[in-house]
Amino acid sequence: MKNFYKCAIIYPSNLIGFMEIVLMINKLLSWFKEECPHCKQQLIGQGSTTPATKACPDGHYKVETHPLLDVQIEYHTK
What we know:
Blueprint: H1 2-8, H2 12-15, H3 18-32, E1 44-46, E2 52-55, E3 61-66, E4 71-76
Antiparallel strand pairs: 1-2, 2-3, 3-4
């Protein structure tokens, strides 16, 4: 009966390797990262007004978030 419990446990580390776990975590974090789609630089917040504004330092991309309307407006410039 004691040996039954030892062989019934399957550890996740046996199923996928460490590098696959790291790649999955990096992919998950990339979904929440705010960056310019053109130059991949991090967006910088501008002011603390009601429509929150974040923009690319080079001016390629700008995002305005209106929380009361639940709307996000994106501006792309080339």
